[in-house]
Amino acid sequence: MLKLHYNLEKLSMGLVAGIIVAASIGGIVEIAPLFVIDETVSMPEDMRPHTPLELAGREIYIREGCYACHSQMVRSLADELDRYGPYSLAAESAYDHPMLWGSKRTGPDLARLGEKYSDAWHSAHLIDPRSVVPASIMPSYPWLVRPLDTQMLSAQLGTLARLGVPYDPEMVSAAVADAQGQSRPESDAADAVRDRYGADVAVRAFDGDASLLTEMDALVAYLQSLGRLTDAAYGNLAGEIE
Amino acid sequence: MSPASTLSRSERQIGFGLAVALALLGLVMAAGAGHGVMAVHGTMALALGMLLVFRVGGAFYDPQPDADRLNRYYDAPTRFGITMTLIWAIIGMGVGVWVAALLYWPEATPAVPWTSFGRLRPVHTTGVIFGFGGNALIATSYYVLQRTSRTRLADSISPWFVLIGFNLFCAWAVTGYVMGSTQSKEYAEPEWYADLWLVVVWVVYFTLYIRTLARRHEPHIYVANWYYMAFILVVAMLHIVNNLALPVSFGAADSFTIWAGVQDAMIQWWYGHNAVAFFLTAGFLGMLYYFLPVRSGRPIWSYRLSIVSFWGIVFFYIWVGSHHLHYTALPYWVQTLGMTFSVMLLVPSWASAGNAIATLNGAWHKVRDDATLRFMFVAAVFYGLSTFEGSFLAIRPVNSLSHYTDWTVGHVHSGTLGWVAMIIFGAVYTLVPNISGRDTMAWPRAIEWHFWLAVGGTLVYVIALWNAGITQGLMWRAYDENGALSYSFVESVRAMAPYYLLRTLGGAMFLTGAILCALNCWATYRLTPLAQTPRDRPLGLQPAE
Predict the structure, then answer these.
(1) Measuring CA to CA, which residue among A66, A44, A82 is closest to residue A229?
(2) Distance from C-alpha of B92 to C-alpha of B98, rounded to nearest angstrom
């Protein structure tokens, strides 16, 4: 064995080949099956992708680095179920490119945040966290009141559709109208959003002002959608308790 | 002496051509994007290309370097790389101290987007991992590769291409974050064109390494080079797979990773933990295996142990990423594999640490007297401690407490401050006098100050966050006698305040030491070189060009 290595050390390409082989095995064994074993992700029937407005909010969540302090993954531990709600299922992030499971809880987990607080609370909290939670150490985001840039929205949905997220061509082409519509409950466009994404989608003036589409609208719409794309997780928990 | 005048006339022509090409690439990016982050990055590349055009062009008709240079090692790129290492150390650690302070004084930052915690935090991580660590790895790898092969670098252009290209990648990354451009994959945040650019840089780096090894005058490839090669190869593999993405448009920074959900999580942490393994461990073990024996004047204690630990690390590490995903929606069997290999990994890790410490047998008086060697000794000790802690934290029930808490952050910093940064400083204090033609640093006493600031800062930081993390973990899972959770989340946030203040203090101490190191190197660079050590040169004459 030692003799073999003694000779290997004289061959740079031999070392290169050895390193590539040794460092590939673990990744192949752990990752490849995740794409072929069906039970890895079982998709519930009611699972929907994010609406364009929620997707725009998700991009703001990413831009501001929220994922560095907030996880979106409730682990299957008793105290987490009591604190946050049902544990997260693989299906719930199956359309997420990338996933935002996170790695640190400087602030609480957000996987079950949707509809837990009012829109007004979220707006106030994002503009000045300490106005509603005095001990909070979260940064304030006063610039979120600016208008939402929807220029790339349609192209973003189109790109995700190419990656397998179930957006049909109509959803892609109506992306900007749907984003507007979701924040204007009294408009015709609002009904179109419900038609395309389901009756359960929250259609509200998320920042309290239906006349202007802002980044706040998008981010609050996204936060209110967390854990609300499917009811499967709640069903699971009920099943286990019975 | 301008670095460009160390190049021959024909090399200057190639360098000039590459500088023009970079400027054109920047122009195309800026014009194609029109506005937004990519346009800013194109302009940066254009400006860098123009600067290089002037630098190389300005030295174009300087006298040719003497022919005897081929009988010396080519250390000008290492010198530049060490300078960049120290600049990034101050940027990365400075931002680190700043964001640490924001967790204690959240209102201390101006209410503008680019100074927000969420945007600055990846500036800290990228600045220290890639800027500080990456430059140190590349700069020392050139130095070690030449001396263990007893030959000069295979050419004089590609070392510059790699270093300048790598620093452009780092600059694109951190300026992108503050403008709000990120892929959000931890430690792989830069957008698609920066990732593609890094692949080009990396291919050149690997080619330079192999070509130089091919010219070696030693039959055996020294163990340090195995580690540097593992670093180059596996980082390439991880980087490419984890960053596969579909751009929304070729004229904008936006993209979506092709991976989604649970598969994305697994690939991200396969990448994430092996960035620790092959960026923050393998390359630095290469550094340790060269500089520790050189500085202590003792050969590596066990040759066999270095073989076992090398292949153990290369094979075991790649399995362990899934320990970041215990109790999540990742299938249980993958979590279990990750945990099992994490525990087994302790064997090769401790073999390396033990080999390093046993090497110091017979040189303990030097450890006592020489702060530079003491840096390396402390690095080996912290390597052993943090790999033990890592294996421990990967065990499922331990992880249920520690995960998501500041214990993880403390663990990472015991590795990065205690091990990675310490071995870098040890290597810097060894090689900077040598490439400056001096026997010692300009201010030897300052090394002693730096050593104690670094050790003190690391201990304050790590102990504060151990306490913080365990407190958080226990508060989150505490139930009262009625079976209800004892603490709200915000009560755990309030409990963190003293620890966050202490960790800021520890970080500030460490930063102070790094600044001292940068000043000391700058002063050493400015000294007049003494006569060259005749031992420190390649074996045999090289054919003239």
Answers:
(1) A44
(2) 10
In chain B, which residues have their Cβ closer than 8 Å to the Cβ of A153? Answer: none
* B chain contacts of residue A156, beta-carbon cutoff 8 Å: 248, 254, 256
- Listed residue (B276, B269, B395) closest to B343, CA to CA: B395
Q: What's the pLDDT score for residue B70?
A: 87
pLDDT score for B282: 95
| Nearest residue of chain A to residue B400 (CA atoms) | A77
- What φ, ψ does residue B245 adopt, rounded to 5°? -150, 155
Name the β-bridge partners of A214: A147
Confidence of residue A237 (pLDDT cuts 50, 70, 90): low
How is chain B split into domains, by residue range?
Answer: 1-71, 77-300+414-527
How far is residue A17's CA from residue B226's CA, in Å, rounded to a whole number? 12
44-73 in chain A: CB under 8 A from chain B = 59, 62-69, 71, 73
Hey, what amino acid is at B301?
W
Closest in A25, A39, A139 to B117, CB measured: A139
What's the gap in Å between the CA of A58 and the closest CA on chain B?
11
CA angle at B384 for the pair B381 and B389, rounded to the nearest 5°: 125
Q: What angle do CA B200, B163, B519 make, to 5 degrees?
A: 155
Residue A236 has pLDDT above 80, yes or no: no
A4 touches chain B (CB under 8 A): no
Q: Which residues on B lie below 8 Å from A79 (Cβ)?
A: 476-477, 479, 485
Q: Is A222 on the interface with B (CB under 8 A)?
A: no
Question: Dihedral of CA B2/B3/B5/B11: which sign?
Answer: negative
What is the mean predicted confidence (pLDDT) over A12-32? Answer: 96
Q: Which of these CATH numbers, 3.30.70.1050, 3.30.559.10, 1.10.10.10, 1.10.760.10, describes A52-241?
A: 1.10.760.10
Contacts with A201 (C-beta within 8 Å, 6 or more apart), sequence order: A48, A51, A182, A193, A194
Kindly report the CA angle at B88 between B175 and B462, in degrees rounded to 5? 110
Nearest to A98 among B220, B257, B477 (CB): B257
d(C-alpha B531, C-alpha B537), whole Å: 13
CATH 1.20.210.10 fits B77-300+414-527, yes or no: yes
Q: DSSP string spanning A86-149?
A: SPPPGGGGTT-SS----SB-SS---TT-TTTS-HHHHHHHHH-HHHH-TT--PPP-GGGGSBP-
- Alpha carbon of A107: minimum distance to chain B alpha carbons (Å): 8
pLDDT, average across residues A199-225:
96
Residues of A in contact with B496 (CB under 8 A): 137
- Name the stretches of chain B with pLDDT < 70: 1, 532-534, 540-545
Interchain pair A163, B256: CB under 8 A: yes
Distance from CA of A230 to the nearest CA of B (A): 15
Domain ranges of chain A: 2-40, 52-241
Give the model's pLDDT for residue A119: 97
The ipTM is 0.95
Distance, in angstroms, between B151 CA and closest chain A CA?
A: 15
Q: Which two tokens stand for residue B46?
A: 């254009």
CB A163 to CB B233 under 8 A?
no
Q: Cα distance from B64 to chain A (closest Cα, Å)?
A: 33
Task: Please report the pLDDT score of residue B67 as a whole number.
Answer: 85
Tens digit of each residue's pLDDT (9 = 90 or more) over B272-314: 999 989 999 999 999 999 999 999 999 999 999 999 999 999 9
Between A and B, how many CB-CB pairs are < 8 A? 252
Subunit contact A156:B319, Cβ cutoff 8 A: no
